[in-house]
Amino acid sequence: MSRLPYDDQLTPLNTDSLIEERVRDLIGRANLRQLWLLFLDVNDMQLPLLIPIDGLPAHPEAGTVATVIDNVVELMADIGAVGLVLVWERYGAATLTAQDIAWAHELAEACTNARVRLRAMLLSHRSGVRWIAVDDYCA
């Protein structure tokens, strides 16, 4: 768990481009395979907590993903978060793989089932960051 240097004057992350810019600044290009959690308050301000989760299986398992999101829900309640930004980090091309799509689908479904406001999902890859649109994993 990482605490971010926090400034009350941060810009609310109320547009997709601001979210993508923040993820590019904080996480940037991929080094490892892990999932990052960024938390938003009621005003879409990022809370000063950035959590990487590593050691996840190569292929998502519904029970594992649901357990991760259930734990995230508890943490969100503790820190006053109402929104979540997920970043899947893996070293590779910017093109979404079948694994990326499967992870995005399972994460989105677990968030829906847990009634978590999933504000965005992005991919950190070897060249930078890209948005993962709903159409990318629901098609």
Number of separate helices: 4
The largest pleated sheet is described as:
6 strands, mixed
Helix content: 25-40%
Overall outline = globular
Number of domains: 1
Query: Strand-and-helix sequence, N→C?
Result: EHEEHEHEEH
Low-confidence runs of at least 5 consecutive residues? none
Quaternary status of these chains?
single chain
Q: For the largest sheet, list the strands in their spatial order.
A: 1-3-2-4-5-6
- Rounded to an integer, what's the Rg over CA atoms? 14 Å
Overall pLDDT: 93
- Count all strands and give the number: 6
**Beta fraction:** 25-35%
Helix/sheet category: alpha+beta
Q: What is the rounded distance between the termini?
A: 34 Å
Short description:
The chain has 139 residues and is of the alpha+beta class.
Explain what you see.
With 139 residues, this protein is of the alpha+beta class. It has one domain. The protein contains four helices and six strands; from the N terminus they run E-H-E-E-H-E-H-E-E-H. It has a six-stranded mixed beta sheet with strand order 1-3-2-4-5-6, with helices on both faces. Helix 3 (98-113) links the parallel strand 4 and strand 5. Helix 2 (62-79) packs across helix 3. The radius of gyration is 14 Å and the shape is globular. The N and C termini lie far apart (34 Å).
Keywords:
139 residues, alpha+beta, six-stranded mixed β-sheet
Walk me through the topology.
Blueprint: E1 2-3, H1 16-26, E2 34-40, E3 46-54, H2 62-79, E4 83-89, H3 98-113, E5 117-125, E6 128-131, H4 134-138
Parallel strand pairs: 4-5
Antiparallel strand pairs: 1-3, 2-3, 2-4, 5-6
